[in-house]
Amino acid sequence: MSTARTGRCLLVLAALLVLVVVAAVASVAFGARVVSAAEVVGGLTGTSSEIGAIAVAERLPRTVTALVAGAALGLSGALMQAVTRNPIADPGILGINMGASLAIVIGMAFFGLGSLGHFLWLGIIGGMATAILVYAVGSMGPGGTTPVKLALAGVATTAAMSCAVSAILLPRAQGLSNFRFWQVGGLGRGSWQALATLAPLLILAGLVGLALAQSLNSLALGDEMAVGLGVNVAATRLTAAGAGVVLCATITALTGPIGFVGLMVPHAARMLTTSDHRWLLPLSALGGAGLLTLADVVGRVINRPGEVAVGIITAFVGAPVLIAIARSARVRAL
C-alpha cells in the first residue's frame, strides 16, 4: 500500500479514536440530568462532586455497552461484506439480527427461558440458521447469488421474522413491555455483569475475524486467485461468516436488534481509506463504536427526560444510506 494511503488510514484512525473518546464522554454527560465534561472526568478519577460520581456510576455501564456493541456490529458488517462480496450486506439487512431476536422470543414465550446465558445461545442458533436460510434463498434462480438478490432475501426474511415476533409477543401480557425492545433494540439493559458474560465470545469472535484479514484480501481477488495464493476459500468463508454471526447474535442477546451500523460504517471506512481488510476491519470496529454511542446520545437528548431507542436512530440514518448505495452503480460484487 502506498505511503499516501497509509497516511490517510492513520489520519482516519486518529479521527476515529477522538470520535470514540468524545462520544464516550458525551454518553456519560447526557441523560435526564446533564453533567459537565469536567464532572465526568472527575467522576472517572474519583475527584468529582457527588453528582459527577453518580452520573459515572449509573451511565458508564451503558456507555461501555454502546462502545462494545457498536464495535461488534461494525466488525460483523465488514466481515459479512467481505464473505459475500456484497457492499450492502449487513447483519440487519441479511436478517441475522431479527433471526436472533425471534429465537430468543421463542425461548422466552414457549420454554420460559429468561437468563442472558440462554439468550446468548438462542441468539447464536437463530442468527446462524437465518444466515443459512438467507444465503440459500439468495442463491436460487439464474445467476446464482447477487448483491441485490441477497439483500432482497434478507429484507423479506427480516419482515417475516418481525411479524412472527409480533405475533408471539402481542397476545402475552408479560411480553408487551418487551415488544419494542425485541423489535428495534436498545442499550438500557447494559451492565457490568452482562458485559462480563458476553466478553469471552466477543473477544474470541473478534480476534478470529481480525486474524482473517489477509485471507479476506485474497478472497477479494476472486476464488481462483485466492486458491492460487494458498487460501482455503471454503474454510475462510465459513470461519469469517461464523465470526460475524457470533458477534452480531451475541450483541443482539443483550441489546435486541440494532440495524444499519454494519452497513454504514464499513462502507464509509472503505470510501475514506482502503479495501485492505488489515485496515478496514479495525477501522470498522472503531467507527461502529463511535457511531452507536453517538446515536444513543442523540436518542437521549431529543426526547429528554425520556429517550428514543437507539435502533430507531440508526434506522433513521441508515435507511437513506441503504437507498443511496442501492441506487448507485457500486452495487456489484466487491
From TrEMBL:
Q: Which Pfam families has this protein been placed in?
A: FecCD (PF01032)
Could you give one GO CC term from the UniProt record?
plasma membrane
The membrane topology of this protein is: Multi-pass membrane protein
Transmembrane residue ranges: 61-80, 92-113, 119-138, 150-170, 190-212, 244-267, 279-302, 308-326
Keywords in alphabetical order = Cell membrane, Membrane, Transmembrane, Transmembrane helix, Transport
As for subcellular location, the record says:
Cell membrane
InterPro entries (alphabetical):
ABC_BtuC-like, ABC_transptr_permease_BtuC
Q: Which GO terms describe its biological process?
A: siderophore-iron import into cell
Q: Which CDD domains match?
A: TM_ABC_iron-siderophores_like
Q: Which GO terms describe its molecular function?
A: transmembrane transporter activity
Specify the domain of life of the species encoding this protein: Bacteria
Family membership? Belongs to the binding-protein-dependent transport system permease family. FecCD subfamily.
Query: What is the protein's given name?
Result: Ferric enterobactin transport system permease protein fepD
